[in-house]
Amino acid sequence: MIYGIDKSIEFSKNNNFISISTISFDMFIVETLIPFALGLTVILSNDEEQKIPKLMLDLIQKNKVKNMVITPSRMKLLLEEPKANEKLKTLNKLLLGGEVVTAELYNQISKLSAEVYNGYGPTETTACSSIKHITNEFNINIGKPISNTEIYIVNNDNMLCPIGVPGELCIGGDGVGKGYINNEALTKKQFIKFDFSDSKIYRTGDMARFLSTGDIEYIGRNDFQVKIRGLRIELPEIEKQILAILDVKKVVVTVLNKNKLVAFIKADGEIKKSIIRECLQKTLPSYMIPNIFVQVDEIPLTVTGKVDTEKLMNLVNNMRITETEYTAPKNELQQIFCTLWSKLLNMEVGIDDNFFNLGADSLMAIAFKTQLLDLDIEIPYQNIFTYPTVKLLSDSYEPKKAKKLLKEDNKVYEKIDKRLSVNEIENIDKLSKSKVNDILLLGATGFLGAHILDNFLKNEKGKVYCLIRKKYGVPSEERLKKTLSFYFGKKYNSQINKRICIIEGDIVLENLGIDDLSMIDNVTAVINSAAIVKHYGKYETFEKINIDGTKNIVQFCKKYNKKLLHMSTLSISGNSNLDYNNNNTQLFSERNLYINQELDNIYTITKYEAERIILEEIENGLKANILRFGNITNRYSDGCFQINALDNAFANRIKSFVQIGCVPKILENVQIDFAPVDYCADAVVKILKHFNNKFIVFHIDNQKHISGYELIKLINELGLSIETVDNKDFKAKILSLSKDKEKKKLISGVINDLDKNKELSYKSKIKINSDFTIEYLKKLNFEWPNINKNYLKKYIDYFKSINLW
Fold first, then answer.
1. Residue 465 half-sphere exposure, CB side, CA atoms within 13 Å?
2. Per-residue model confidence as pLDDT tens digits over 319-366
3. Cα–Cα distance between 569 and 610 in angstroms, integer?
4. Cα dihedral 434, 437, 441, 446 sign
5. Rounded CA gap, 671 and 579, in Å?
6. Is 79 in a helix, a strand, or coil?
7. Kindly report the CA angle at 551 between 420 and 559, in degrees rounded to 5?
8. Please, are residues 633 and 795 in contact by the beta-carbon 8 Å criterion?
9. pTM > 0.85: yes or no
């Protein structure tokens, strides 16, 4: 260890080293044995100096300390003291260890002149096993193994993980201890042998992954991971956002019972929890907002300088964690709702408690709706979000499914209908190319957006300016690189900052948050592929992005004379992707916006509103095309699908049918649209190249449908098993699964397709017509592919490869 650390950091001779740890802390070994072995002076601190930051700083200043090892928590305390930077100015080398180093802390430390290192190593492997020299906030990790040390990342089967794939961090080499005294069972469990190494290996219980640089990225504990209901939680990012709130001085966020976030806050004066939550809702997704806020006088530390989480957790063991007084249910329906939510959340829930403030999420909402099936209670899924307390939800309850009927000003629609009436096949004359220089692409990190970027770069000569917001502390460039790497490997690495230009911005800001507008002087068109595409959630969130964001984009395009290609959805027609009603009474074509259709989820309502905004502004000089997409599916070339496959409603629907093992026979007549994403992107770029303000709306859906019968047949031929049964048997199967605690999750993909009789409901009075776009695209040498066995094999194989099916 001494040799390895010295080789990694290279301490200067004739320097000194301060010891600020108790003798029982393994960091004491690093700060004493290393300087002794290297002939450096060791400055020992007493008990008071270790505990009181001011005294420790005075000791450092007095002795002109050059080298120090310290935990991030203790370093934060030092930096909070007056004149801390001045007293620490003599530091030459600073080694952090014992806790995760945040970008915020590094940025504070970077104001000093010291080189900063991040050390990682359990006591069981002699205090330090790897070191990273941190040079900026974007390269914070735990580095590479030091000399005489081996580090492996293994999966659950004790096989080595490839680069980039998370697994358990295991350490071998000369520093590994013999085991635990008087605990043979634990020794056998943690100190083991692997086939690929002759060394004794210690299983750390930490999750990590190798980066392409050879460095190791620490992820968290595998027995106490910061991961709740499948969502990875960024605790430092939550702490950062809470610290930004006025009067908050210190904060520690941790996990209670593995499913709830708790924030311990030290502040000047009392801070209302509602105010904290309101502030965080502006900067964090709902699943990252703590369920519990506890205001404390001090953040306790252990004798080793780490945050004493045990003392903090003792504060919440006997307290009620809601912000409201418990109110008991007042009727049978409220009693049912309270009972179900209490079981799901594993806590007492009153009628005034907000489900989502207590830790509920969309998956729990599905579980709640599923359990209501057993009780013949039909609650629209969206209502669970709209009315997030038992009282509000029970007051809104109606046995009949509620749907929103859009009521609009007829005069507005007369103008829009007249403008769209030109979209007739007979009006398509010879199409000429439009000048395309560079483009500004919004939503480049999305499934469709990334493929539009790919198609444009392959077929055009211009640059792609990608507007990307910094998300959860991850820089824009890193977000785009990860996306492009997932879909295209290293293909576009060399194009970053050449033909792919990244602009940090946000569509909800004026001028889209672009500071230097001169960089996009050569941009001729804006492609808007940015949107929230989930079908349920809070209206305000969807409104901000899908409506207000569209307004900003429209104003931007008008102000700077840019053409706009807006990506929309055929869901605004009121028809689903599955339709077995052959007696549709109305057609919805490129000539329509409002035909008295009913829209019953926030996504389609807000996308509909966005279209109306654009169509109205065309009368005011906006040059725009609207492209309505059908069911965007896996890439035709190789079957690759979107990164967040579990967020796709259609994929989850098919997954549920596969897992249930059967479908009602009536679905054999369903006509299904598979629109491969690479073909969708090609259609976008071809329309862009022939931009024509005469024709406004296009339907980008593959009308070469495949029937439910053909799909079921091909799925069975490809090794999966789905049988067709009558409605009665399918209903019985659904009811049986909904009552099984372990198997009810199998129906999650179709739960929102069931009516009050527990039968699938895909009927629609509306039929999509895309004849105009089909003919238009033919003139651009574009034609949709046939959905055959070869494509479906790639489709199914991909989902098998990611364990979706």
1. 21
2. 555 556 678 888 778 888 988 888 888 778 888 888 887 777 766 787
3. 11
4. positive
5. 6
6. helix
7. 90
8. yes
9. no
